[in-house]
TrEMBL record:
InterPro entries: CHK_kinase-like (IPR015897), Dhs-27 (IPR012877), Kinase-like_dom_sf (IPR011009), Oxido-Kinase-like_Enzymes (IPR052961). PANTHER family: CHK KINASE-LIKE DOMAIN-CONTAINING PROTEIN, UNCHARACTERIZED NUCLEAR HORMONE RECEPTOR-RELATED. SUPFAM superfamilies: Protein kinase-like (PK-like). This is CHK kinase-like domain-containing protein. SMART domains: CHK. Gene3D superfamilies: 3.90.1200.10.
Amino acid sequence: MMDEVHGNDHPLEILDTRIKWANLQDELQKVLTTGSKCRRTSFAHQIPGSVGFLSQVVLIDLHWFPQVPKLPSKVVLKVPISKPHEPNPEDVETPAERLEPLLQALFQAEHSFYDFYRSIENLHIPKPPVPHFYYAAKFEKNHEYLVFEYLHDTHHFHIWDNFNETQIDQVLLAIAKTQACGYLRDSNSRPGLDQKMMKTLYKDCFPVEEMLELLHKMPAFYGEELQPLVEKLAQTHQKIWDLDIEKKVCKKLGIKPALIHGDMWSTNILWEADDHNKLRALLDWQMTHHGNPAADLIRLFNSCMSGVHRRRYWKDYLRIMHKHLTHAMGTHPVPYTYEQAFDAYVFHYPMETFLYLPPLNPIVANANRSEEPELAQKRKSIVAEKVKCMMEDILEFQR
């Protein structure tokens, strides 16, 4: 009898994902067009720190028989979880039933993006670097999991790590390529890539009241000097909070919505392990949609630069991004001017940053829970500087 994962002494399910080993093998055989099967020695393990917002990432070590050089020895599964990861008791609880539409929308958006990417993969047009996508498959009613290549020898930074000029430029180029391929191949017509998912996220699952509750906890975490800023933000939040801001900005400025990543921050940017100035891939496209072309820049600058550096150079980096886009569009018209990009950044900054700020408490606390107190405090101080500058600039741009 073939020594494969259907054997009686091999677990039926992959960890606690509710995905069956036999189904994974069958789908991989179809996609890879192989008759090889997975031995019982194949195994799965949770990638440390990979349980994120409504999803977990599992690394699968595949032992094929017979062995064929083209077959991957590892793949990555991205699997939805039934409730958000809540490592910090201070997190705001969100009822599971409110998360179901969002869970489906997030995975549909990422699946739609990779279907679009696959349609242009062999075309000679600019494209951002992403992991190879093998397939998506349903494993429960209304739920699907995604399977990607495993990228060896990589490194990612966190929010307390500030990027250098070369690193920022690499990401700006990737953002420009993302927008260019969307414009050139009309990704706007793709289902699942509209802004409805963003409204589902913040209207139904994380309404303004819960965001304000998290915001009010920030002074206790980062320092009481933030209290006056938090009070001002709370007082003016009704002028800031607008879930249609991206659509309004594009319409006001006459900009065709761009294909954007939607969550362009430090941990979703992967670098070569032996060369941190060489971008390897952009990850987690579950919040991708068509919207304000400045949105990814706002989140990138907020997370990957100190507040002081961002304030001093954001206009310069915006101009560099526009030059990259101009080059990426080739002989085709550039969709918007630098001046339009500038205004789009200014108009959108308050709302985009208001959405980004509150979750930083649990993110930073959880990531440093097992670290030495001195190191954890140093990291918190770096983030506190960014937070203070972001709060001040929300109020400044709102004027």
